[in-house]
């Protein structure tokens, strides 16, 4: 068995072009339980992409092409389904399971489904990318195709196979309420947690929910993620504590009120180029400006990262697919990876990591009383001891209260979320209310970040 494994590893490295994967540092939760760190203690800002069907639809060459692009654009996490369904096959026709039973992974000495997954995970590792692996998507679990006994056997298989990989994050669930088959989800989560101490575990919920709704107090849940969903304000007609329309920052605020404290962030906001509400393909489509807004709103509320999504990329729509893709997708993944929103995500990560990261807190009192606004006019504010960021989606005026950060004088700049460039404004005394007028005329998508730094 050792000879077979050694032979496979050699073939793996040769297939990757001779590149030896460098182990990535493990991830952990920060001491204040709000952020993620590497094992070395460096801040880790989760910048994810939803490559949900990466393992099943892309060839090895295509997977490398995709990962190279995401590395170049600053992404450091790919969220991907290990099993989209219990009938899962990869692009080479290899089935994942025997008899559609998750307790019976189909293992061969030569080419099989799991070796293909291994290859892609190693390819991601060599490019500095972590993979948030969803063991099995929620639909089949809810449909009764996975029971707790099978789930334990399957999770044991996954933990033992991947605990030695340096770049794994476990993302239990999959677009599902935790209350649907909760025993199965707890079995998967607890088994992964018990058998694989090297990797963090979370839960991907259905739209307009957070993992905290069901699993916040579970020891296996390392951090919370929420899916703010794809509906706009007019479409989100539901009522209740979890329904916030487009105000995804409210999920972070809600999670931050819970004890014990755990990090939280938006792991599935609206996707670029997908219809509002998903199902009406004639509806308006979310664009790059919307994607940026969801990112800055949620991160400035205290989120420890953000996941981008694209309609064609998340389903890896390929050129041989003659039918229109799900949710009206007409682009192909290899073209859609260059949509503008994807290229702009790196700027939020670069901004957050450019100042002392771990001291950052959300702080609405930076905004002068009565001027924070609501809906698209909402101003999101966050600060450290000697710096502050305030985001406006519409480019409306921002009025800052004095004395919220240290220093007698403050240097003010505009940060452009579209290209990451700064525009100098002025240096002013930190003693009185100050109003700033962003470049351009107020309009949806004329978004800017006001950056304030102490000069002392």
Explain how this protein is built:
The protein is α/β, with parallel strands linked by helices. The protein folds into two domains: 2-353, Glycosidases (TIM Barrel, Alpha-Beta Barrel), CATH 3.20.20.80; 363-454, Immunoglobulin-like. 27% of the residues lie in helices and 21% in strands. The chain is built from 13 helices and 22 strands. The protein has helices at 2-15, 54-57, 60-72, 113-125, 138-142, 148-162, 182-195, 212-215, 249-255, 288-300, 311-314, 333-336, 340-353; strands at 27-29, 36-38, 43-44, 46-50, 77-81, 97-98, 101-105, 130-134, 168-176, 201-205, 209-210, 224-227, 264-266, 305-308, 361-362, 379-383, 387-392, 398-400, 409-415, 422-429, 434-436, 448-454. The strands form six sheets. The chain has a six-stranded parallel beta sheet with strand order 10-9-8-5-4-14. The chain has a six-stranded antiparallel beta sheet with strand order 15-16-17-22-19-20, with helices on one face. The chain has a three-stranded antiparallel beta sheet with strand order 1-2-3, with no helix packed on it. Strand 16 (379-383) and strand 17 form a beta hairpin. Helix 3 (60-72) runs parallel beside helix 4 (113-125) and helix 10 (288-300) runs parallel beside helix 13 (340-353). The longest helix is centred in the middle third of the chain and has 15 residues, at 148-162. The termini are far apart. Residues 30-358 form the Apiosidase-like catalytic domain. This is Putative collagen-binding domain of a collagenase.
